[in-house]
Design a protein that fits this description.
Elements (H helix, E strand, L loop, with lengths): L1 H12 L32 H23 L8 H5 L2 H4 L15 H7 L3 H21 L28
Helix pairs in contact: 2-6
The structure holds heme C (HEC) (2 copies).
The site of one heme C has 18 residues, from helix 2 and helix 3.
């Protein structure tokens, strides 16, 4: 546990602006998913994106979430999109996904074993799988600072108030 915790902490504090570092060895080769539609996500219209979410993203992500916790049997668009699912904007990140602390507070945040457990699940599975489904290269502070990261789904609490 301690060792894993250290690894994650190093990993997370390695980057300044955002949480995720090059720790996942992020190979992003999205071209091999058999479920994938022919049109690249970036090229899809809003409506095509919604259909892709329904047909591919939700079922796939639900499987991953349910393996982590059975309560996600009830996972739906709203789980990620919050009120954006009801008002039709589907804007992300969603303020209703629990906000994450800023990088300088993340180490302390991970001292809670529950936060650590969730963060491991997110970093190992949710983040890379979602990036793959959206065909987005993952965030890397050096090579891809604009890449897909935790903050595409989570808002970040502002540091000092
Ligand atoms: C596991 C989390 C997750 C679930 C579940 C999910 N989405 Fe998404 N959705 C995302 C992410 C992440 C994006 C891309 C955000 C970005 O571009 O940064 C997105 C993008 C979208 C977009 C495009 C928004 C835009 O501005 O282009 C639509 C539309 C959408 N989702 C609809 C849905 C619908 C409908 C469902 C349920 C059938 C759903 N989503 C379920 C995570 C999710
Ligand atoms: C595809 C969207 C998505 C991405 C990417 C993502 N998360 Fe999450 N995360 C969620 C959702 C949705 C939940 C809340 C599930 C629920 O309703 O309980 C969550 C929950 C969490 C929680 C639990 C918070 C709490 O207070 O219960 C933590 C911690 C967390 N995520 C950290 C991260 C970190 C760190 C990353 C990047 C490595 C990340 N997440 C990437 C969607 C995402």
């Amino acid at each position: 546990m301690k060792r894993t915790s250290d690894t994650i902490t190093t990993c997370l504090s390695a980057c300044l602006g955002l949480f995720v570092a090059a720790c996942a060895g992020s190979d992003s080769d999205p071209g091999t998913d058999p479920d994938k539609e022919d049109v690249a996500y970036d090229e899809m219209s809003f409506g095509e994106r919604a259909a892709y979410m329904d047909a591919v993203v939700l079922p796939h992500m639900k499987e991953i979430f349910v393996a982590f916790d059975a309560k996600f049997e009830r996972m739906e668009c709203k789980t990620c999109h919050g009120s954006g699912a009801a008002n039709g904007t589907f804007a992300m990140p969603s303020a209703e996904v629990p906000p994450l602390p800023p990088p300088e507070e993340f180490e302390a945040y991970l001292e809670d074993p529950e936060h650590l457990r969730w963060t491991q699940f997110m970093a190992d599975q949710v983040w890379p799988e979602m990036a793959k489904l959206l065909e987005q290269p993952t965030y890397d502070p050096e090579t891809n600072p604009e890449g897909f990261s935790c903050s595409n789904c989570h808002t970040i609490k502002s540091g000092v108030n």
